[in-house]
Amino acid sequence: MRLVSVDEVRAAAERIRGVAVRTPLLACPWAERPERTLWLKPENLQPIGAFKVRGAWNALAVLPESERAAGVVAFSSGNHAQAVAYAARAGGVPAVIVIDDTAPALKIAATKELGAEVVLAPPAERAAVARALAAERGATLIPPYDHPNVIAGQGTAGLEIAEDRPDVASVLVPISGGGLASGIAVAVKALCPKAAVFGVEPELAADTRDSFKAGELVRWPSEDRVRTSADGLRAEPSELTFAHLTALLDDVLTVSEAEIRSTVGELAARSRIVAEPSGAVAPAAYLHRTDVLPPGPCVAVVSGGNIDPALFVDILRERTHS
């Protein structure tokens, strides 16, 4: 299977220039460990609060005018939904988004506010519902990760990491469908070949870890994957993303629900970063799995900050009283 190239990622970077925020690397002196330092890549600062705008914008940007006029359809747990809606509104493209009926109300409301038509479906059925809608309406399907243009767009975050921290020793990236980890690994391995790239998953949705160990896709039931509070990490890799992950990742790490929650609080208190649970898994791996990381600078991607306000308050209250 053909993998996305670093040249495709560079082309995507030109398309999203001035649209996606070129997020900085933030030093975390409070998290220094012997021989290791932590740098955060705060993708929560993107216009829709998550990295997904990179891939969505790139995928829409390359569509022919005839396809743009017919509209787009996407399916998502929430952040890709907002990203496609954002890009579609900017380009005057009609958009229909199928969102998990278990997604946070915050993400559903934000997608509607961006002008997209929203259809709710069970997580296990959302892809099929989206494909049916696309066929019915003659629209183009923009999947959340299973597409070279989406992967290339997400990889632009890896270009920025390599440019800002060419001496990076390790990069921690959350994994759900695998588009972000695939794209970042393409860029980092091409430009910083000595760096290790680790995918990170919640223990309650660790299907990629099992697949990585088995050397083939291992599927977890949807009802198992939805147990994690990291709602953006409940998807599973495709054949395309898994090919990237097995070729480019050094390993897949997992973190517990308690570690995810505590890291959300740590990021807020120590670095003034608002992270949703999905966005906290990579920093959580640095804080709780340090022994497996090589010495040197570590970059952890905070993939998003679209957290339910009540959940955020609960986590901060827990930290205050612990």
Descriptive notes:
It is a single chain. Helix 1 (6-16) crosses helix 7, helix 7 (148-164) packs across helix 8 and helix 12 crosses helix 13 (277-288). It is built from 14 helices and ten strands. It has two domains: 6-51 and 147-321, Rossmann fold; 53-141, Rossmann fold (3-Layer(aba) Sandwich). The mean pLDDT is 95. Helix 5 (105-113) links the parallel strand 4 and strand 5. The protein has 322 residues and is an alpha/beta fold.
Low-confidence stretches: none
Total strands: the figure is 10
Instruction: Specify the biggest β-sheet.
Output: 6 strands, mixed
Task: Return the structural class.
Answer: alpha/beta
How do the helices and strands follow one another from N- to C-terminus?
HEEHHEHEHEHEHEHEHHHEHHEH
Number of helices: 14
State the domain count.
2
Ordered list of secondary-structure elements with their pairings:
Layout: H1 6-16, E1 26-27, E2 36-42, H2 52-61, H3 65-70, E3 72-76, H4 79-91, E4 95-100, H5 105-113, E5 117-121, H6 126-137, E6 140-141, H7 148-164, E7 170-174, H8 179-191, E8 196-202, H9 207-214, H10 222-225, H11 239-248, E9 251-255, H12 257-271, H13 277-288, E10 296-302, H14 309-321
Helix pairs in contact: 1-2, 1-7, 2-4, 2-7, 4-5, 7-8, 8-11, 12-13, 12-14
